[in-house]
Amino acid sequence: MNESNKQAEANRALQNFLDAVYSTSHSYSSVHGYGTAIKGKKNGFRKFLDECYSINEIQLRDKIGNNEIDVYNVLSDYVIFLSKSEVYPRTVKQWFSAVKSYLTYIGIEIYNEKCKQRVRLPKIHKIRKEPLTRELIVRALNVLPFKLRIVFYVAIASGMRIGEIAELRLSDIDFGNSPTRIFIRAETTKTREDRETFLTAEATNALKDYLNRYFSWKENDTNVDLQNVKIFGRTSLARRKIMPKKDEQRGSVDILEQSLNNYLKNIPHLNMKMRNGKRLIHYHALREFFYTTVSNIAGSNFAHALMGHHSYLDTYYSLPEKEKIKMYQKCEPHLTMSDFAKIEEEIEKTKEKQVEIEETYVKLAKFLKEKDPSFERFLELIT
């Protein structure tokens, strides 16, 4: 078989493998991750094979079958190749796993125990994450374009993953509920489970403005033709009043992430990187902000459930509807970025309650001392 046929066979094999990844996970992010590990132009496995062995993966399979090359030596060399390219240890581990799966798929036998003995992966350093603060989020919101600003508001208010936001349809949103309820379909989630979450009034109003601007959405209208539109897919066609076809609607995490990076990279005070090399401001950091905020106010179980962590969902759904809403509304002022009046109002209410408690305490102590003089001694002991 000539070189061009070998390459064509390799391309078909890779496409079939990526199709199999999608059929198992139904996740474009997974497909993208596997594809990057294998065919990435900078440090992909194909580039490594070409530079170090001058072959592709089909030729590698044939040479291994003929006992000309040892697969464990190749994998070990690949890990060294990635480490020398200063790829982070966690990424090395992820890409190594993807490549191993692909090689197994095209017929190369790899035994896990032997692989562990022969191939040494770099140790992953557990670096403490720097928390994303409200102040930094507000600064980012002040410079981001309209669409990304709305994505931020939705992420902060709901705790949704960016992949879930990218797949959000108008039919998933219940503006008639107070607070606005989001239904997250199982096929769009990491855990493949339906769940629900809520939006703050701030995020709701921003989202309504966005829908009106890009999709001519009307409040108090059925908006039937918009129900299955991925609202954070391509909006360039919608702006020209042309509804995008389903295959053109890339509710794409890649596009949203690249857009965010492009805007932040030119603003030094917002383009800060943590010790692990990641930007401080990224979509998953908003999800972490949601968890910290909600768990501090309503408890970690409630936060985990809204975020879609499997083991907490049953407990969440056993809560009465009014209790869920009450708990979320308690968190709402703390998930609101631009409406500081609400936050100040909440703080003022807390201060007033504290004053009332202190006044009641003084009256009660006075009453008890009058009834029993020895109570004054008791107060001295506990204060």
Summarize the structure.
The protein has 19 helices and three strands. The protein has about 375 residues and is mostly helical.
Main features:
3 domains, mainly alpha, single chain, 383 residues
Strand order of the largest sheet: 1-2-3
Indicate the CATH topology of the largest domain.
hpI Integrase, Chain A
Mean pLDDT over the residues:
87
Instruction: Please summarize the sheet with the most strands.
Output: 3 strands, antiparallel
CATH superfamily of the largest domain: Intergrase catalytic core
What report would you give on this structure?
The protein is mainly α. The chain has 19 helices and 3 strands. The longest helix has 32 residues, at 340-371. Strand 1 and strand 2 (181-184) form a beta hairpin. A 3-stranded antiparallel sheet has the order 1-2-3. The protein is elongated, with a radius of gyration of 27 Å. It folds into 3 domains: 3-118, no CATH class; 134-213 and 227-235 and 250-338, Orthogonal Bundle (hpI Integrase, Chain A), CATH 1.10.443.10; 345-382. The termini are far apart.
Secondary structure topology:
Blueprint: H1 3-25, H2 28-39, H3 45-53, H4 57-65, H5 71-84, H6 89-105, H7 112-118, H8 134-143, H9 146-158, H10 162-166, E1 173-174, E2 181-184, E3 195-198, H11 201-215, H12 236-239, H13 253-264, H14 283-298, H15 300-307, H16 313-317, H17 321-331, H18 340-371, H19 374-382
Antiparallel strand pairs: 1-2, 2-3
